């Protein structure tokens, strides 16, 4: 199982410095690179990790600020395109 591809707590510092209009491309590129590299070797991916606060609201991370709540669906679509045979999930602790 691949854990995790998109998580605000494990980002290179340069991602947070990107202009918001470049965040989506950087996220999609990272997902495509990871999922393509391990295609057929990883049966499932935790694509997005911990996107919600304890009260159910979205974490206001760089992805949410750049793309709104749609970043989750975009991340899942991108992962599916890169590795259509893998199971995909959103992982959260609550």
Describe this structure in words.
This is endo-1,4-beta-xylanase. It catalyses: Endohydrolysis of (1->4)-beta-D-xylosidic linkages in xylans. One of its GO terms (molecular function) is endo-1,4-beta-xylanase activity. Residues 1-94 form the GH10 domain. Belongs to the glycosyl hydrolase 10 (cellulase F) family. The protein is α/β, with parallel strands linked by helices and 94 residues long. It has one domain (2-8, 18-91). It is 45% helix and 17% strand. It contains four helices and three strands. It has helices spanning 13-17, 20-37, 62-67, 70-82, and strands at 2-6, 44-49, 87-91. It has a three-stranded parallel β-sheet, with helices on one face. Helix 2 (20-37) packs parallel to helix 4. The two termini are 20 Å apart. The model has no long low-confidence stretch (mean pLDDT 96).
Number of helices: 4
User: Shape from CA axes?
Assistant: globular
Uncertain runs are none
- Alpha-beta content class: alpha/beta
Strand tally:
3
Query: What is Rg?
Result: 13 Å
Distance between the termini: 20 Å
Q: Summarize the main sheet.
A: 3 strands, parallel
Number of domains: 1
Query: Helical percent range?
Result: 40-55%
- Element-by-element helix/strand order: EHHEHHE
Strand content: 15-25%
Keywords: Carbohydrate metabolism, Glycosidase, Hydrolase, Polysaccharide degradation, Signal, Xylan degradation
Domain GH10: 1-94
EC number: 3.2.1.8
Enzyme class: hydrolase
